[in-house]
Specification:
The chain is of the alpha+beta class. It has two domains: 100 residues, no CATH class; 184 residues, Rossmann fold (3-Layer(aba) Sandwich). The chain is 39% helix and 12% strand. The protein is built from eleven helices and nine strands. The strands form two sheets. It has a seven-stranded mixed beta sheet with strand order 3-9-5-4-6-7-8, with helices on both faces. The protein has a two-stranded antiparallel ribbon with strand order 1-2. A hairpin with a 5-residue loop joins strand 1 and strand 2. Helix 4 runs antiparallel to helix 5 and helix 8 packs across helix 10.
Length: 324
């Protein structure tokens, strides 16, 4: 605001300053008269004014330290020392590079070590959030319609097991896509019921790995078919006898899965259990999902992993009836 006002540029409002502090992206900023901004920039470049004019404007408005830093940055650009390989400025604008501060790593315990002061600075970033804040909307009241019945036993007949992870319905209550666990479970069981079969729900406690959860479910299933379900929503259809990392169908893009998808997964699991020829469930692929949700995915998986305990698989009662 000070520099724009001193140099006669289009003014920056208080609302723009406030928005700039909390904005996540450019679309969060108020609209500006871009034509006027470009006209002012062209006039400045065509004049005989330089960075010194901005420095002088800052000093006149009382921003002496900022003015000194910008002036020093201009001096460093003229000096050119920052063009050395892997160069950075320290807090005093001294250049540290591969020339005057080479990497001396020679094994564990050697090389660059973060100082206590620098570590405190790194921890005090303005945008830092608690890991729990990223997944708070996926943590809720434990699902009241789920209750333990006792140790899960091998089944018989053409049933389907739905094997869920250790946090399902308790430490986590929604998928990464925001679908309530009870709705997801109901959708899968509806799909099974539409094919004329029944399903049991089993909770696996000693692993958060989808392949392990599914493998255990298939081993307990009377038909040998199980649907493995991590609490964040990632799903697999598994068959007894397949190697742990093999499967009939895998659905890794959990943010793209809908309740209709989960119902189709249940239907296909039942068709496999009946020995029928089955067309895999089509899934929409979002190539940006991994980049957009990698932090939340990691934190959801960590929370599920924290629930692992030395407890055998437990059969769950789900207070629900299929509407078929």
């Amino acid at each position: 605001q000070a520099v724009y006002d001193e140099l006669g540029f289009p003014p920056i409002s208080d609302a723009e300053v406030e928005a700039a502090v909390v904005a996540h992206a450019s679309e969060d900023m108020p609209a500006r008269d871009v034509v006027a901004d470009l006209h002012a920039a062209d006039d400045f470049l065509a004049s005989d004014q330089t960075i010194v004019a901005a420095v002088a404007a800052l000093r006149r408005r009382g921003f002496r330290q900022t003015a000194a830093n910008i002036l020093e940055l201009g001096r460093q650009r003229v000096a050119g020392d920052y063009l050395q390989p892997a160069a950075i400025f320290d807090h005093l604008f001294r250049v540290q590079s591969a020339i005057n501060d080479p990497n001396d790593y020679g094994g564990p315990g050697t090389g660059y070590r973060v100082s206590d002061t620098r570590w405190r600075e790194m921890q005090a970033l303005h945008q830092v959030q608690s890991p729990r804040d990223f997944i708070a909307d996926r943590i809720g009241t434990p699902v009241a319609s789920l209750a333990p019945l006792g140790p899960a036993k091998p089944g018989s007949g053409r049933e389907v097991i739905v094997a869920v992870g250790p946090a399902f319905g308790t430490a986590l209550t929604q998928t990464i896509g925001g679908l309530p666990h009870e709705d997801v479970l109901a959708a899968i069981l509806t799909g099974v019921a539409r094919e004329g079969l029944t399903a049991r729900v089993v909770k696996v406690f000693h692993s958060s790995d989808l392949a392990a959860i599914s493998h255990i479910g298939a081993a307990l299933s009377g038909s040998g078919i199980a649907v493995g379900l991590q609490s964040r929503g990632t799903t697999m259809i598994q068959k007894r006898g397949l190697a742990r990392l093999h499967n009939l169908e895998l659905f890794p893009q959990s943010p793209s899965l809908t309740l209709e998808t989960y119902e189709a997964i249940g239907r296909n699991a039942a068709r496999y259990a009946k020995g029928e020829q089955t067309t895999p469930v089509p899934v929409q692929v979002d190539n940006w999902a991994r980049l957009r949700l990698i932090v939340k995915t990691t934190l959801l998986h960590r929370r599920e992993t924290e629930q692992i305990c030395d407890q055998p698989p437990t059969e769950l009662f789900f207070d629900w009836e299929p509407d078929v």
